[in-house]
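Listing S7. Sequence submitted for prediction.
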Amino acid sequence: MSYDPPRPAGRLLLTPEDKEAPQRRRRLRGLGLGEHPDPALDAFADHLAELTGAPYAMVNFIDENRQFFAGLHTPGSVGLPRPVSGGEHAKPEVGRQLARDYGFCPHVVVRRKALVLEDVCDYPRFAGNPVVDEFGIRSYLGAPLIDSTGMVLGTVCVVDTEPRPWGKPGLETIKSTAAELVARLELLGGG
C-alpha cells in the first residue's frame, strides 16, 4: 500500500503554453517592438486609462519568458519595478516587465480573444495569480493585438485594485482600442 501525502494547496493558475512565442519574438523585433519603452505607446496607455477610468493601462508584448510593457500608465511615476516603502505589507510598484507567469495577458494571447474579469477573486483559476497577492490587482480587462498576418503580438489591458463592472461597454472599448493600435503599429512598422 502506498501513501501519497496531501499536496499543499497551491495556485490553481497554470500559465498556458504559448507555442507561438518564438515566432512572436521575431515578428516583434522586425517591427522594432517589445524591447524599449515607447513614448507613443505610453501616450496610448494614458488614453486607454482615461477612456476606461482605470488606474493602470498597458501595451504589453510577450515572449517566451516575460511580458514587456512598452506602453504604461500608472497612477504615479512610470519606471522600473521597485518596492514601495511602508513595511512588511507594502506592494511593489508596477514596472515595465513581469515574468510570463504573472498576470492575465498570457491567457489573452493564447486564447486569442478578450478577457473580462470584473473581480478576479470570482474566478479560482485567476484568483491565484501572483499579481493578485503581490500587486493587489482585483480586476482586469484585456484584448489581443492581432496583426494582419494573424500573429498575436501582445495585448492592451487595464487593471484596477478594486473590482470593476467593465460590462459590455468596457469589452467594446478594449477590443476597439486593440484594433486601432494594431493598425498604427503595422503602419509605423511597415506591415
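Caption to Listing S7: primary sequence and predicted C-alpha cells for the chain studied. Residues 1-13, 77-90 have pLDDT under 50 and may be disordered. The helical segments are 21-31, 39-52, 105-111, 124-127, 130-135, 167-189.
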